[in-house]
Design brief:
Layout lengths: L30 E2 L1 E7 L4 H11 L7 E7 L4 E7 L2 H4 L2 H6 L4 E7 L14 E5 L2 E11 L2 H10 L11 H9 L4 H10 L3 E9 L3 E5 L8 E5 L2 E5 L3 H6 L2 E5 L4 E6 L2 E6 L8 E2 H7 L5 E2 L2 E2 H15 L6 E4 L5 H11 L7 E3 L12 H11 E3 L1 H4 L3 E6 L6 H12 L4 E6 L12 E2 L13 H7 L4 E4 L2 H8 L11 E2 L1 H4 L7 E2 L2 E2 L6
Parallel strand pairs: 15-25, 18-21, 21-22, 22-24
Antiparallel strand pairs: 1-23, 2-5, 2-11, 3-4, 3-5, 6-7, 7-8, 8-9, 9-13, 10-11, 10-12, 13-14, 16-17, 19-20, 26-27
């Protein structure tokens, strides 16, 4: 640090710029917790994982890791920070092998530390085991207590460690032990398990968290999103089905099942917010789905205005759809500064507001004297929406009409999204009219649940609720969420 910069002026806390990312962010947006990428049968497996994790960086920005093997030894490296900060040429060169799994992580309960960075690596009776997961195991605390009472010693606070202990305690071969372990888990999860001679990919029985398979030559690849396949030049083959477990070893690929599929319930927020717009899920492109959300929003809640603008980045597609449907011009009324750190020291409310302006700016020449339709994907606590509405008003907008391309977010997520307690979700205790007043908007409307299902479409359009988990909107959770009187949400994966 330069002597000219006093410690109090630092824009980040801790040893790396995004430590604790999101926990004190001036924006109250939801956070995804992690992304996974795996390779089996490619000489440059670690390098492919590196580029794949780059494409999945939006799913987790606190830590990254890759484990590779040549069928004998494990070579791995994990670190805190972005993928490009954790790995360099020498570190990648040390990760030798033709199979690998990688992970990017966002912690949600303060456990931003290296011991929880994935893949988690274990030694057990049959050799080495590496585990990477996206999601959340709802009954992990109960299983953990039972394992500790019977002698297990946990090294991390991660949900993911539970499955390693369950596998290690089994007397069955690895594949059957993994099946038994997965059957004991309740929640939303996509696992990649790597041993000295096998790679296993598995999805929860409801398919709550996305996981897809691709091919590059003779190699098999796995990823949380298809956008990572595009980066490495791979072809998307298909999605891993709910309750499915794929086993890759020297004999090739085996498609097995550890549980019967339950109600299909892919997280709706993947479509609305989390996944990159160039990814595909359930046969539907995310950009196209978000455009349709904007179009349906316009049909449900038209308002006469001069310009339409979207909150960067996830709402741009929906804003374009709203503009196309209404004929109101789409403009870049809000600009995101992508070079600021994610966590700010904010000793005063004044500096907190300044933090927002460092991240987002209103374009005065676009909105001044105009009636503006502001499209956003969700309202969590309401503080972000209020600040953005006020930014537009300060830039001269005469009216600001807010349109949210999701239903009101009323309930916490138990399956891997970092959400506040129900009492902190503004839609759980205020009406739409009250929220509108709270965020200082001229009008506020949310997309209807039926409109969301219609807009998403895809291969599961005829399934119950379009094959979506919409519990955060309607309190209809696809799994049990309470164990021993203890509800657990967010993620410590």
């Amino acid at each position: 640090m330069s002597d000219a910069i006093r410690p109090a002026q630092r824009l980040w806390t801790g040893d790396y710029y995004n430590e604790g990312a999101g926990h004190a962010d001036p924006f109250d947006t939801l956070r995804e917790e992690c992304g996974v990428f795996g390779v089996f049968g490619h000489a440059e497996a670690a390098s492919l994982s590196y580029y794949g994790l780059h494409a999945l960086q939006h799913r987790g920005e606190e830590s990254a890791g890759i484990c590779a093997t040549n069928g004998e030894d494990f070579h791995y490296h994990r670190g805190m920070g972005l993928v490009k900060e954790v790995f360099d040429r020498d570190k990648l060169a040390s990760l030798r092998g033709d199979r690998s799994i990688g992970h990017v992580r966002y912690s949600t309960s303060g456990d931003s530390k290296l011991t929880n960075a994935q893949p988690l690596i274990f030694k057990y009776r049959d050799g080495d085991l590496a585990v990477a997961t996206n999601g959340n195991i709802v009954n992990a605390p109960k299983i953990r207590r039972q394992l500790e009472q019977s002698g297990s010693i946990f090294q991390t606070t991660s949900d993911t460690e539970v499955i390693a202990h369950l596998i290690a305690r089994s007397s069955k071969d690895f594949v059957e032990a993994a099946k038994d372990a997965l059957r004991q888990l309740v929640g939303g999860f996509a696992f990649l398990l790597l041993t000295n001679d096998k790679l296993i990919a598995a999805s929860d029985p409801n398919g709550l968290r996305p996981l897809v398979m691709g091919r590059l030559g003779n190699a098999y690849l796995f990823s949380s999103e298809t956008c990572a396949f595009e980066v490495v030049g791979a072809e998307t083959i298909r999605e891993i089905q709910p309750g499915e477990m794929l086993v890759l070893d020297k004999d090739g690929l085996r498609e097995e099942r550890y549980a019967e599929p339950q109600r299909k319930a892919l997280c709706a927020m993947e479509y609305i917010y989390f996944a990159r717009p160039d990814s595909d899920m359930n046969g539907s492109n995310l950009h196209a789905s978000r455009k349709r959300m904007g179009q349906v929003m316009a049909q449900e809640s038209f308002v006469d205005a001069d310009v339409v603008t979207g909150v960067p980045d996830s709402s741009i597609s929906a804003a374009i759809g709203y503009a196309e449907q209404t004929g109101i011009p789409y403009e870049l009324g809000l600009i995101k500064n992508k070079y600021t750190g994610r966590t700010f020291i904010q000793p005063s409310q004044e500096l907190r507001e300044q933090g927002v302006k460092m991240k987002l700016s209103a374009v005065r020449r676009v909105v001044e004297g105009k009636r503006v339709v502001m499209i956003d994907d969700s309202i969590v606590r309401g503080t972000t929406s209020r600040r953005i509405v006020n930014l537009l008003r300060e830039a001269g907008a005469t009216e600001v009409h807010v349109r949210i391309t999701s239903p009101p977010f009323k309930n916490p997520c138990f399956y891997g999204i970092d959400t506040p307690d129900r009492g902190e979700l503004i839609a759980s205790y205020k009406t739409v009219e009250e929220i509108c007043k709270e965020i200082n908007a001229d009008s506020l409307e949310f997309l209807s649940p039926q409109g969301l299902i219609q807009a998403v479409g895809g291969d599961n359009a005829t399934d119950y609720k379009g094959g979506l988990c919409m519990a955060c909107f309607d309190n209809d959770y696809p799994t049990r969420t309470d164990f021993d009187g203890e509800e657990k949400f967010g993620c410590t994966c």
